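Reviewer comment 2.1 asked that we show a complete input and output for one of the modelled complexes. We chose the iron/sulfur cluster case, as it is the one discussed in the main text.
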Amino acid sequence: MLYERIFLPFFRHASRRAMNFDAGAVQPPVPPPGGNAFLYVHVPFCVVLCPFCSFHRVAYRDGKAARYFAALRREILAYRDAGFRFTGVYVGGGTPTSAAGELAETLALIRESFPVREVSIETNPSDLTEPVLDRLVAAGVDRVSVGVQSFDDELLKEMERYEKYGSRAQILERLECARGRFTTLNVDMIFNLPHQTPEILEADLDTVLGSAANQVSFYPLMTTDSVRRKMTARMGRLDRRRVHDYYFRILDRLRGEFTPSSAWCFSRGTGSGVDEYIADNGDYVGVGSGAFSYVNGVMYSTTFSLNAYHDLISQGRPAITRSRRLATHERHRYEMLLKLLGLRMDRQWMRERFGPGAELSLLPELTALRLAGAVRKDERGYALTERGMYLWVLQMTAFFESVNVFREKMRANISAELEQDDDVEDATVALERVTRWVDRGKEHSLFLR
Ligand SMILES: C[S@@+](CC[C@H](N)C(=O)[O-])C[C@H]1O[C@@H](n2cnc3c(N)ncnc32)[C@H](O)[C@@H]1O
Ligand code: SF4
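Response of the prediction step:
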């Protein structure tokens, strides 16, 4: 309790401060030594927009999507030309498979351009059709993460997902089609939905255990004030006091069949496969509109306007519009947060990442965490306990809610664009133009140097 009362509010405040980006002229990231980084590709399109979601997402339109993917490919080539060497890629959204052909073409370009070892994509159950699955397999996708949220038909209706993304029976059928076709088939679940009783959660756990998924991520429902206001009428009031009970039900029910890969991700059996989090990679570059990067201790955000994104990339300029250099201690704390999400932080990793003084610099935090029973020290470094896993879920929730507040602010600045529901008229012309630039490749994509 002490930890929740004192440490968490402090942490929430620190997270909000970390999201205070500076606007104005922004120097894009330079590659870290060796160029190695992780690539995050943001695809903001969804067929239906769910009321609980604070991610940067817009209604799918053919022309807008074609124009966007062409710009994405150009931006990715620019990073290649600037000397980045991406070793893994995560395509998130939105719903990346809403334009499966464009996605496949983009993945092919990434594979040609970088020595990627792992490719993960997010999708919705309704997109797991044979043609899309064939495309994903051919594109070398290793991990598919399917947004299920709950298998309860009433909750799916409240979340406005039942019609377009599928009922319990349809989701299970789609997962069966994907069985065995990827190293990792993950289902994303949400717990502590307002009308989710302990019985509904237990039923969801049983269904996950019996499903084709070999990995499951359980996120507590995260909200911001404005999403909560919109959501309450349709989905009911959020009660955060249940998070502890629900989280430990999840741990207990999965025990024996699944092994934790992170505080909220669990893999069937001994836990091999491709994990959801990017802690091992340290530096990451986010491409697309409304994407974040973290390189050499600086956090960046790209423009949230899809129109501005298209224009900037078409002009050969970076899409990054905001940045913030983290102070040394902030940087250590941020990386510790991500690292311990993956359950442990080794001394050797700390030395390699931060230099010899890192353990000393994090001593106050590590001591508080040990006193709270959240981490234990062993010969290699620090490991999260079960209590620590629960506290980490609270910390990550506080962190992502701060990110969501920032996203909302950025989206409020472009409300007129977001409300405009029509497709781009000159999509074909714009696409041809951008494709030509991409074809001209190196010569025109040097803006990141
Ligand atoms: C941003 S979505 C992208 C993939 C896909 N469109 C989907 O709906 O699953 C990725 C995951 O984020 C999680 N998510 C979205 N909104 C959330 C919220 N308010 N609280 C907790 N998790 C959320 C859901 O589990 C979702 O599957
Ligand atoms: S949860 Fe997924 S499908 Fe729903 S709006 Fe968010 S990104 Fe789109």
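The first strand starts at residue 36 and ends at 43. We note this here for comparison with the apo prediction described in Section 3.2.
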